[in-house]
Write a structure and sequence with these properties.
Elements: H1 2-31, H2 33-55, H3 60-86, H4 93-101, H5 103-114, H6 121-142, H7 152-163, H8 165-188, H9 196-210, H10 216-232, H11 239-255
Helix pairs in contact: 2-3, 2-6, 3-5, 3-6, 5-9, 6-7, 6-8, 8-9, 8-10
Length: 269
């Protein structure tokens, strides 16, 4: 009898634990309405980003639809994040300066610039990985008070993503740099929708370079410069290539904007 009672008690506790966890999740999302909507938008964007990467091999129509949904959801999440950071819109000079300095404003510009662009993998990598990282952070916070063992597998996978955050942000920063030559090539091959696309993207890249909270683009530029210098100063490198590359790098350094002092612990926003 005692064994049957124990079994019955265990069976009744498990559904109770599961229902309690879902109540915790519901209450958590209700308390942070904007954050929850932003999480749903980012999760939707990440799903469409991975679907786009797969569909691009066998279904161009689906890939294009997923690419547009990715940019729309990414832009929506950026708008919500911007409103969280700065509050209601104000038509003042100080507010506009604050908008320009916000990472979320940069990515809102990114999403608008590429919404109708030809689907390109290196462009899709940026919002996909960014949304993956931010969705992971939100889920880990939300599941802290959930004690059902069924969440353990999900928590382990989320922690793996979190542990690789620095590497993923470096991938995002490198992709942001390499999109510039890709867009220029697309412009000259007739695959770029508008001549404004590379011009707007150049402004975006400069804003990312100046970012106060996220130094990864600046670090990526520095690492790229060091790698190029190692190549051109090798004895096997022809002198004319060394001259061309050196002058090109000098031009890029003159065009680079002012930078702000970076925060001690930068985070993706």
């Amino acid at each position: 009898m005692s064994g049957e009672q124990t079994t019955t008690q265990t069976e009744t506790e498990q559904p109770s634990s599961g229902s309690n966890d879902f109540s915790v999740i519901k209450n958590f999302m209700m308390r942070d309405g904007k954050g929850s909507i932003m999480f749903l938008a980012r999760a939707f964007a990440a799903i469409n980003g991975f679907t786009f990467a797969i569909a691009s091999f066998f279904n161009p129509g689906l890939a294009y639809a997923c690419f547009q949904r990715l940019m729309f959801a990414f832009g929506l999440a950026s708008v919500i994040r911007l409103s969280q950071r700065l509050g209601p819109v104000q038509f003042t000079k100080q507010y506009m300066i604050s908008v320009v300095l916000e990472d979320s404003a940069h990515y809102m510009l990114f999403a608008c610039n590429f919404y109708a662009h030809k689907p390109t993998t290196v462009i899709g990598v940026i919002p996909t990985l960014y949304c993956l990282l931010q969705s992971t952070a939100f889920l880990l916070t939300m599941l802290q008070d959930c004690h059902n063992p069924s969440w353990a597998i999900l928590n382990r996978q989320l922690n793996k993503v979190k542990d690789n955050q620095q590497q993923l942000l470096r991938v995002v920063a490198s992709a942001e740099i390499f999109v510039m030559p890709v867009v220029i090539i697309q412009l000259f091959t007739g695959q770029c929708g508008s001549i404004l696309t590379p011009l707007v993207y150049y402004q975006f890249l400069m804003l990312r370079y100046m970012s106060r909270r996220n130094p990864y683009v600046r670090n990526a530029f520095t690492e790229l410069k060091m790698a190029i210098n190692q190549l051109i100063y090798k004895p096997a490198c022809p002198a004319f290539i060394k001259t061309i590359v050196t002058k090109a790098m000098g031009l890029l350094e003159r065009l680079s904007p002012m930078t702000y002092e970076q925060a001690p612990q930068p985070q993706a926003s």
